[in-house]
Amino acid sequence: MRRFLIAALMVALPLAAAAQQLTVSAAASLTDAFKEIGRKFEATKSGVTVRYNFAASGVLIQQIAQGAPVDVFASADQETMSRGIDQKLVDPDTRRDFASNVLVLVAPAQGGPDLKSLADLSRPEVRRIALGKIETVPVGRYTKQSLEGANLWAPLQPKFVQADSVRQVLDYVARGEVEAGFVYRTDAAIMSDKVRVALIASTQAPVTYPVAVVSDSKNKALAKEFTEYLRSPSAQDVLARFGFAKP
Fold this sequence. Notes:
By secondary structure, this protein is an alpha/beta fold. It has helices spanning 2-18, 31-44, 57-65, 78-86, 138-149, 153-156, 166-174, 185-190, 220-229, 233-241, and strands at residues 20-27, 48-55, 72-74, 96-101, 103-108, 129-132, 160-163, 180-184, 195-200, 207-213.
């Protein structure tokens, strides 16, 4: 019996040693696509488990700065990734763009106001407009760019309801708690029964998604493999199915 236990333990130890967990902090708008991509990546790597942390990009980089054990960071904007590089939180040599998106204005599918232009947000029946916090949520900064371009940022500020992530903006609109909100096209698509896209909003900077390996990652080789996998045909097919475009 003892010999059997020792033999079993000797077999189990290499398996345990081979098991690896990869922690990916990713922008909230990537939630659905990345969950599927993670499963596909796991299927190509024996003993690897991908664990996700989804939130606003600015919140995620703050967590990494505070020592959160993360291997890969995927941002919804270039500004947050550049901040991470400036603070030496991510490896600049591994930075890659892997997807792009589009900013849209959405309203509740049932009973929402008929919005044909950004100027319609000034109408009295539009009392609340949801947008991401510009300090931490990239979609908030894209929204500001769009409204500033239409000279509407300052006049509309009394109507703003700030959200902690793009998904929270989506929830506010879907539940009818606001008359309008700014999200990405991919977010609107997952709740097409509860929100409708009123228009595509132009932005000064394109909505592109960069990814990089975190400097303090304990699994840098595996982390780099994941960042490269995001640009593979398999991962790009998943992203396209969820409405993302190539960068």
